[in-house]
Each structure stands twice: as structure tokens, then as C-alpha cells.
Write a structure and sequence with these properties.
Layout: H1 20-27, H2 31-42, E1 49-52, H3 60-64, E2 68-70, E3 79-83, H4 88-98
Antiparallel strand pairs: 1-3, 2-3
Amino acid sequence: MKESFPYRAGLDKLIPVSEIPVLNRMRSLPQPQKRLLWKIIKITSKDGLAIYNGKLIDLKILLTQGLIEQNLLYRGKGISLFVLPGAQHLLRQLIRKIE
């Protein structure tokens, strides 16, 4: 089953201009990282937090691109992430597409 981001249908018109570069970074990711980011977005709360149960090394590209940030204060199981920091409108639109 092929997964892709549901942002082809005019999502750029639904978010502020300041968040377009984040959307473009998402679009330019290699396919495996797009899939990983999509899986993370699916488990993200409306507050923009997600607990990832994989390896930190798998997140390297997403971290360097600034699409996620590690929550270093979290001490539970898994890796706590801030998803799409600084692009709350984009995250909200993507979460709405899932629901």
C-alpha cells in the first residue's frame, strides 16, 4: 500500500505563507522519510507531541530538516517529539485529513 501526504489538494492555500517552506521541505524528502514523517503525524496529538518507539538514528534526516524536534525533558518510554514545530497550521490541516 503506497502512502503519500494528503497535501496535493490545495493545502498551500490553507496555511500561512510563513509555513510554505516547511511544506516544501516535506515535499522534498526522500520517500522513506516521507513515510516515517507521515507515521509520526498519524500518532501526533493536537498539541503537536508524539511518542516514537523506534530508533533515534531513523529520525536523523527529519531532525536535521527541522521537521521534528526531540523533547529532551521527556523521561518515559520511547522518544518524545515536537512535530512540525513552528508550523502549527500545517500540522492541524494534516491531522484533519487523517480524522
